[in-house]
Amino acid sequence: MGSQTNYLGENYTKELETPTNITVKKILGLLMGIIDEDDERKSEVISLGIGDPTAHSCFHTTNAAKEAVVESLLIDKFNGYSPSAGLPTTRKAIASYLSRDLCYELSPEDVYITVGCTQAIEIAVSFLAKPNSNILLPRPGFPTYALCASYRNIEVRYYDLVPQNNWQLNLEAIEDLVDQNTIAIVIINPGNPCGNVYSYDHLKKIAETAKRVKTLIIADEVYGHLAFGETPFIPMGLFSSITPILTLGSLSKRWLIPGWRLGWFVINDPNCIFKSPKIIERINNYCDICASPTTFIQAAVPKIIENTKEDFFKNTLKMLKKNSDICYEKILEIPCLNCPYKPQGSMVVMVNLNIILLQNIIDDMDFCFKLAKEEYVILLPG
């Protein structure tokens, strides 16, 4: 092994250096790892660090979803591979579902079925990558984008969300960050990890800014429709006549089935500004080297969407709002914590930690590790 290392050479190993961006799963693993396996209190751990509603007994998917999956499995037609971009019936169902909120009809060919929204992120970042490119990411934001960008040698440029202004984008800062090598601006709505929901007017201004600086938008809407405050959820695709939008989403959160790993990557571009034959070929080629979601889950999607009653969604929002309100009120009672913005959507909240009021705490990472070890409560550092 030693001779092989010398043969490869120092420059080669440096080129293969793994990006250091840390993922949510990595942090959760480290936090759980400090709790002794033999500790009798291990079963008492309260994990508030991951957006998985199935971890809590009050959240269950609809019977319509379970019945649709069982039916597609039992008919024995969906045990083989699916096309790289997804089953045609699945693409058609997602196109129809998303078109309900748009002023034009998406084509099934605009939709690519992915292994959850995580793969949609990876595809979007990877096929846009080019030499010397950069991407604009929100801070705070979802760390998977930065990790994917690092693996593709894409420079990450962060724009700060403003907590005092409902976590909105500072659009002037966006214009200062963009240059001719910018491949996209990423927005997450409803917000992860801030729990915000952007208004129609703000989203329109974001689209107009993207048009002005001549770049497209990646709209992460994995928490789409999970808005329970005064501001309704507005899909970014509604503004795709202004600038092209790549919409990413999944069934995971709205249907409470994250483990089913059914997501999508959608091109919203009615004016065909971005959607050229070369771009489509590039996406299709990339999909050819990716794994497809489980075929019988894909086959169930049309009936999952068609047969789910509105009451199911209303009950989910009611439960999310109730839990969000309790969380917000309890945070206000803790002297070292404050919440700059009451959550309006998604399943998360960003909290400010006042280090000055704590003893022997260096930063948010230190706080989270000591909280896990001493109190068996898992939070993610900001």
From TrEMBL:
This is Aminotransferase class I/classII large domain-containing protein. Belongs to the class-I pyridoxal-phosphate-dependent aminotransferase family. The keyword tRNA processing does not apply. Pfam families: Aminotran_1_2. GO terms for biological process: L-tyrosine catabolic process. The keyword Membrane does not apply. The modification N6-(pyridoxal phosphate)lysine is found at residue 253. InterPro entries: Aminotransferase_I/II_large, NHTrfase_class1_PyrdxlP-BS, PyrdxlP-dep_Trfase, PyrdxlP-dep_Trfase_major, PyrdxlP-dep_Trfase_small, TyrNic_aminoTrfase. Its cofactor is pyridoxal 5'-phosphate. It comes from the Eukaryota. The lineage of its organism: Eukaryota, Viridiplantae, Streptophyta, Embryophyta, Tracheophyta. PANTHER family: AMINOTRANSFERASE CLASS I_CLASSII DOMAIN-CONTAINING PROTEIN (PTHR45744:SF22), TYROSINE AMINOTRANSFERASE (PTHR45744). Residues 44-381 form the Aminotransferase class I/classII large domain. SUPFAM superfamilies: PLP-dependent transferases (SSF53383). Keywords: Pyridoxal phosphate.
